[in-house]
Structure formats: structure tokens, C-alpha cells
Amino acid sequence: MSGTKRPVSVLVVVHDPELNILLLERAAHPGYWQSVTGSQEGDESLRATALREVAEETGLTVAPGNLRDGRLANRFEIFTEWRDRYPAGVTHNTEHVFSLRVPAGTPATPATGEHRAWRWLPWRAAAAACFSWSNRDAILMLGLEDGARQNFLP
Fold this sequence. Notes:
Blueprint: E1 8-15, E2 20-26, E3 33-34, E4 36-39, H1 46-58, E5 67-77, E6 92-101, E7 115-122, H2 123-129, H3 133-151
Parallel strand pairs: 1-6
Antiparallel strand pairs: 1-4, 2-3, 2-7, 5-6
Helix pairs in contact: 2-3
């Protein structure tokens, strides 16, 4: 039986002002660390998807203005073990990248059954800990962008 999940998703890199990154460990795959991810539902906008997924996966309710659209989309092959969640014949997903700045030390409440743990890591360590290349690259771009911006500040 085929699923109904849409092959359009968001990746939300949650970070604090010092660029520590919030990572979640997948419940079904111990050792698989990632940022917030999730599929678009119904006719919701990508921004609404990102805010919903942050709330569902971390328990955080945030002001929409704190969410930044990275204006980046990655297309990748869906892992075979997860393809039954999608309509028959769907093999690829398009993931839209966002970032969300929260106060340092913000606690998370991982979604029961979806994530088993959470932790804050400095951006380089967080990028290295991610199992997903698109998540790693999004964190690296965020860190490099922030570093480049600081180089031009007085």
C-alpha cells in the first residue's frame, strides 16, 4: 500500500545567537542526528509548515518573524525504507531550508516516538554530527554566512 505524504518538505536549522545548533536524535535510528524536518501538508505555505514542524518536534512556539527563509531547495532521493509513506512511484523529495534563531539555552521537548533526545552543539560540530548531507550543508552555510557577516562589522 502506498502512502499519501507529499514529497515537499522543510528543514529548519534552529540556532542561538552564538550559532549553537539544536539537533534531534531520531527515535527509530539511534545515532541519526538532525535538525527539524517535516513534510508540507494540505495547502499550507512552506513557512507555515516550518513553524508547525518546529512546534511539533521541539515544543517551541515562536514568532513567525524569527523564521528566516534560506531561499534554498535541495532535491534528494528518498531512502528506500521510507518510500512507502509516499504515493507509488515517488522516489525524490524537495526540501526547503529555513533557519530559526532562539535564545541561548532554549530547552526542547522532542516529539514522543519521533525523536529520543536533543542537544545543542557549536555549528561545526553540529554539521559533523548530522546524518543528512543537506542538513550538514545548511548548517555550514549558516555558520559561514554568519562568520562572513562578522568580518565586515566594525
